């Protein structure tokens, strides 16, 4: 279901054909905010980015849709995360760290610094692609559009203070979201992270 289809379904299920586009947009954004928290570590939100080093200073920009890093590596091996005080090459206990990185907001600093142009890979948890334009989709709107729909219906009930529908739609949203979260994504597959390339 793309965004335009979701908007139509929300109006139909809520029996509110006069809901303005801006109102439905707000509902969708609110639901997406919650879904990004609830599905933060869902395997379908795991991506791999290949990022060329922009310069020799070891500063690597991170993807805009990053929620949390899983692993940073290059052809020579994995970079371990360590606190800023460990930039001297040892961890908190004085154990030597050969390769590591420090998080600095929207970038990380790698030690030792890779050469400019070297490719570094990052496996990470990503935000859902937001539904902005009418034809926009993401994996959740395609495979589990009911979760989006009942999330929006719940938000409508909150907005119009309809306690009876709120209880029903909240329950249905929670049931469908729980079922999604409990699917057996990691059964009968390799134990290493499943990633999608950008």
Q: Which terms would index this structure?
A:
eight-stranded mixed β-sheet; 22% strand; alpha+beta; 198 residues; 8 strands; elongated; 2 domains
Count, helices: 5
The helical percent reads 25-40%
Distance between the termini: 22 Å
Element-by-element helix/strand order: HHEEEEEEEHHHE
Main sheet properties: 8 strands, mixed
> How many beta-strand runs?
8
pLDDT averaged residue by residue: 88
Uncertain stretches of 5 or more adjacent residues: 187-191
The neighbouring-strand order within the major sheet is 2-6-5-4-3-7-1-8
Q: Estimate nothing, just give the exact number of structural domains.
A: 2
Structural class category: alpha+beta
Shape: elongated
Radius of gyration, whole Å: 21 Å
- Which percent band covers the strand fraction? 15-25%
